[in-house]
Amino acid sequence: MIVTREKTLAQKVRPDFSILNQEIHGKPLVYLDNAATSQKPVQVLDALRHYYDFDNANVHRGVHTLSSRATDAYEGAREKIAKFVNAASSQEIIYTRNASEGINLVSNTWGVSNIREGDEIILTVMEHHSNLVPWQILAQKTGAVLKFVELTETQEFDMDQYKTLLSDKTKLVAVVHISNTLGCINPVKEITKIAHEKGAKVLIDACQSMPHFPIDVQEMDCDWLVASGHKMCAPTGIGFLYGKLAVLRSMPPFLGGGEMIADVFLDHSTYADAPHKFEAGTPAIGEAVALGAAVDYLSTIGMDKIYDYEKQLTAYLFEQLNPISEVKIYGPQPKADGSGRAALASFTCGTVHPHDLSTILDQAGVAIRAGHHCTQPLHRVIGAQSTARASLYFYNTREEIDAFIVALKEAIDFFGGIFG
């Protein structure tokens, strides 16, 4: 009797990603830089091409057939995103170029209108620069005070300290859902609940969580949430901001121009309702349509299935990395089943610079990240100028992890021969 094993999730989806079948420096490509950007399946590329091949026209502005089809596809994608995050309405989804623009939108509208001198904004030391710099600028303009949640001994969100930082002066809590460096998963539902008890608003940076497991903004109860399309199988240049409709309606426009108006007179204008109030000018129509296709693609697979498979990869990655004595991994260890942290590992190898390590791995066809990952303050906290980072997605395999480990050990031996 012949027993056939069921294909893994990665084996099922690999044919959709032609880029993963190429060779780099004569070696099969092992792409482990998914926290920086994901690869795009053919279904998403086809949707982008279809728009330009058959529906290319401006949205909302024409009554001809092409404009109607473009508008339907554009707004249809918004509906898909709303369902994907369980928003109460598609009006709560605002297209942006990326998550950074979404955070800047909130800072420059709600922030400018509501933050005053002496008000407090709570962030964490693990924030991506995109969820740090806009609040620094706002604090400099307004005289607000920035406070920071620090790390526990296991390099996770310090909930006890967070509770001590909250006060009647706290107006905003802005926190990353998953650290792109530490891989820790922050308890955003509890963080939000406690903040709301103090009357503070909450913004969640979901760039590293949105691609990997189900997100429910109503259950989370956050006031805003941002995500980038390019990390979830969509093209670059498109992302979205979720906001509670009542909060969005209370915010002034971000940019002025076409699309975001109701009526324009020579001396004043009135503005459209959300979401269009925040989408001035011709948008990235094709990219938005492709983001909708990416949401379809991920939903068809199932976010629960993606998360379950990635937990297996996480457990295996750490099983292989932990015995290597030269490797120091940052962030919490996963549980036995791979849960408890994201499917990435940031690490150092003694005195070997991560850039040198990444260069050697590239020669073996293995693509990883090296640098401060846009978290310079965090790297100062953990005592590392920079780190190497291997980050996984649902199309990665155990065999690719094995190839990474072999290349990593060879690189360590190489540098040991030079510096040892």
TrEMBL record:
Upper lineage: Bacteria, Bacillati, Cyanobacteriota, Cyanophyceae, Oscillatoriophycideae
CDD domains in the cross-refs: SufS_like (cd06453)
Entry similarity comment: Belongs to the class-V pyridoxal-phosphate-dependent aminotransferase family. Csd subfamily.
A Pfam family annotated for this UniProt entry: Aminotran_5
SUPFAM superfamilies: PLP-dependent transferases (SSF53383)
Domain of life: Bacteria
Cofactor(s) this protein cannot do without: pyridoxal 5'-phosphate
Swiss-Prot/TrEMBL catalytic activity: (sulfur carrier)-H + L-cysteine = (sulfur carrier)-SH + L-alanine
Protein name: cysteine desulfurase
Keywords, sorted A to Z: Pyridoxal phosphate, Transferase
E.C. no: 2.8.1.7
Protein's organism: Phormidium pseudopriestleyi FRX01
Domain spans labelled Aminotransferase class V: 30-404
